[in-house]
Amino acid sequence: PADVPAAAARRAGAPASRTARVGDTAEVGTAGGDTAPGDVRPGAAGGGVLTRSNTLNLVAVARSAAEAARVESAIVHLTDFQPSRVITLVADPRRGAEPGLDVRMKLLQQPAQNGHPAVRFEYIAVEAGAAAIGNLASVASPLLVPELPDFLWWAGDSVGQSTYFRDLADMADRLIVDSATLVDPAAGLRTLAGLLRQNRGCPFLSDFAWARLAPWRQLVALFFDNPESRPSLATIEDVTIVYAPRSDGRESGFTGAALAAGWLASRLGWQAVDRPERTRTGYRVIFRGAAGNGSPDRGIAVHLRPVYDPAFANGLGAIFLTAGGNAPGTFKVQRSTAGAMTTTSETGNRPPVGRMVYGAPKDDAELLGAELQQFGRDRVFEEALAFAAALMPGEATADLIGPVPTGTAARPA
User: Fold this and answer.
1) Cβ(276)–Cβ(285) under 8 Å?
2) pTM over 0.85
């Protein structure tokens, strides 16, 4: 695509997939063979069509065997979009001080389905111990297919803590993270926002936590598509965002809640009065927003509340908006079950209106597949991230992403 930046001069774009007529088998060249990695040669005459993916390079970084298994599982289950080559770098300091690297390579094939031909792509795994971790960027660079954009999926639970993170990010056209997995989300969001500022938006950045917010943002925006509800946007005075705390070492919804607050503030022109303050039930931050019609600026209280509920699936549980003044109203989006969300709205001139929307949270393969098809900047996300990072408290947020007692109702504070 024309808007893909060149992280290095060798990349010029993402050509379309190429196909070859093959028989029952196809020979795929390796580094030690007669052909370069990725070449497909016909086997026996007369078979079906095999598509050789020729789209992009994906470099995935894991810091443990468990993370590496998660990465491989997501890649194997990609359906709509496959990279041309996947290079998984396993940087596991627990392997000790062995100086060498363990390398394995295999060919993955997505079976033909829904009228589409089978697709093959290459998978290279490089495992390094503590002594060799610093060499990972130099190992990955010559393995990249020329003339293709390079995507970096950082699947680890920390960002910016190592030099090889910076080295790999400098090679990438797009960096993909999941801030929900970060052990220190406040520091992680600040690092990501700083990376965008320093590099002026390149590499482009994607966050699974932001992608999980898509249905929430759509449902909140739908409230105000109705002209009768739109005046309430200028009179919102209280927001409560309920999220799942970390449980059993899994993801937390804290960064999703912070990004949702940043999205609302950046879209509606709110300004933070001060840093968030710790409350008995989470965090509270006070914003100022223009009231319109020459009225004084109004205060908006935004609450971030951790509430454990299995239905929240380590993401958001609810967003409550309360408007006052001359355009009062309440607007609620809640996850009622693991596969359904409900919306309810009521304004001064309209009775309560509610509906149910079905849709389970997406898994890693679905999220990754969608991000691999993004080749430009998401400025709305970047602005929400900058706002969220600026709001992050200076102290550790472990208490907000850890378990909380069950039975706490998901209600506004």
Assistant:
1) yes
2) no
